[in-house]
Design brief:
Number of strands: 20
Structural class: alpha+beta
Helix content: 10-25%
Oligomer: single chain
Mean pLDDT: 85
CATH topology of the largest domain: Mannose-Binding Protein A, Chain A
Strand order of the largest sheet: 3-4-5-11
Number of helices: 8
Strand content: 15-25%
Shape: globular
Number of domains: 3
Radius of gyration: 21 Å
Low-confidence stretches: 1-13, 19-47, 63-74
Length: 366
């Protein structure tokens, strides 16, 4: 298996990840990932440890696992779950003429394990451990009480639980499903059409907090005094970004995900229907590159920074607009609709594909 080129900082992060797996293997007799250690990204790691760990994995005939770690660092964006292409009417298109999410299927494959005895689900990509006991589908409370509940939760000898952020909570959804939009092979205790609290406050109004709706796998906002369901998490799996703008090419590169984003004047002026947006990106030549595409839902959603508003986008971008942008991902229960993201506050929505939205193209990634 061929591995991708990685920079020094990423290599140090991989060493830390490999080390956590190595320690887990000694303690538990397997290679189950118990969470991402706090010292990921610490440049003090001796680079010789990289070779030592690779030698160990080679000796144990675990090179595919080692390569998987190179390709699925904790910052990797996962696949949305869409596996087929659809036209504007929602019909399946199998000839490759629609270059949507189902055509590219960008991202890494989700890897979950469920410990039925402990009633937890472990996300092997992020290292997060999720509560999945019966309380996760029964307890309803206010936002402040939800935070206290998670802080005081002890589940199978773990007492470091917390209320997840909006970015963490949205990451467990799978857009292949709806009602609920989650893989119930792993998450067994869930209500299909209700909202769950997150720890994230709306940036422009601290009386409102983000919630997630399990029916569509969408975000919502509500007053912190209202009651919603609670699912706690433990570990450190927050997605991070480091953006670098090339003023000459009018592009912005996320050095953590490997994605390069269009950032010329078109990104705040060009609009079109969903199929027109796909065609625009497919025909775009910018910065010497011609392999641009319309971003899938996760790529677009995690481009938004929900700690900001008007726009909810890094200031590295010079051409931003607080409006709706198309993703290439269809709505699962009605594929004549596609997911969009509004960059005033970073919330998602779905819109009929014949509508008119703004376009920001992307290239690269996994």
């Amino acid at each position: 298996m061929k591995t991708k080129h990685i920079d020094t900082t990423t290599r140090h992060r991989i060493v830390s990840l490999c080390a956590s797996v190595f320690v887990s293997s000694l303690a538990y007799g397997d290679f189950s990932l118990g969470g991402i250690p706090d010292n990921i990204g610490n440049p003090s790691f001796d680079t010789n440890l990289i070779q030592a760990l690779q030698n160990y994995f080679t000796a144990q005939k675990m090179i595919p696992v080692y390569h998987m770690m190179l390709l699925t660092s904790p910052l990797s964006l996962k696949k949305t779950g869409q596996t087929e292409s659809y036209d504007e009417d929602g019909n399946i298109v199998a000839d490759g003429s629609i270059k949507d999410d189902g055509y590219y299927q960008q991202g890494v494959v989700p890897i979950y394990t469920r410990d039925a005895n402990k009633e937890v689900v472990i996300d092997k990509i992020t290292g997060l451990m999720w509560q999945d006991d019966s309380a996760a589908k029964t307890i309803q409370t206010t936002w402040n009480d939800a935070k206290s509940y998670c802080t005081n939760l002890t589940l199978e000898n773990y007492n470091d639980w917390r209320l997840p952020s909006i970015d963490e909570m949205m990451y467990i959804f799978d857009r292949h499903y709806y009602f609920p939009a989650i893989d119930m092979n792993y998450f067994r205790n869930i209500n299909g059409a209700v909202s769950y609290w997150t720890s994230s406050i709306k940036a422009d109004d601290n009386t409102l907090a983000w919630t997630t709706n399990q029916y569509h796998g969408s975000d919502e906002i509500d007053k912190t005094s209202q009651n919603h369901y609670v699912r706690c998490v433990r570990g450190n799996g927050t997605l991070r970004h480091h953006y670098v703008r090339n003023n000459g090419t009018e592009t912005v590169t996320d050095t953590d995900t490997g994605l390069m984003w269009q950032d010329n004047a078109d990104a705040k002026t060009v609009t079109g229907s969903w199929e027109e947006a796909i065609d625009y990106c497919e025909s775009l030549t910018l910065g010497g590159y011609s392999d641009w595409r319309l971003p899938n839902f996760y790529e677009l959603y995690y481009l938004a920074d929900r700690s900001k508003f008007d726009p909810s986008l890094s200031s590295v971008f010079q051409n931003s607009l607080s409006n709706f942008y198309w993703s290439s991902t269809a709505k699962a229960e009605d594929t004549s609709y596609a997911w969009v993201v509004n960059f005033y506050s970073g919330y998602d929505y779905f819109n009929n594909k014949t509508g008119n939205m703004y376009i920001r193209c992307v290239r690269g990634g996994q």
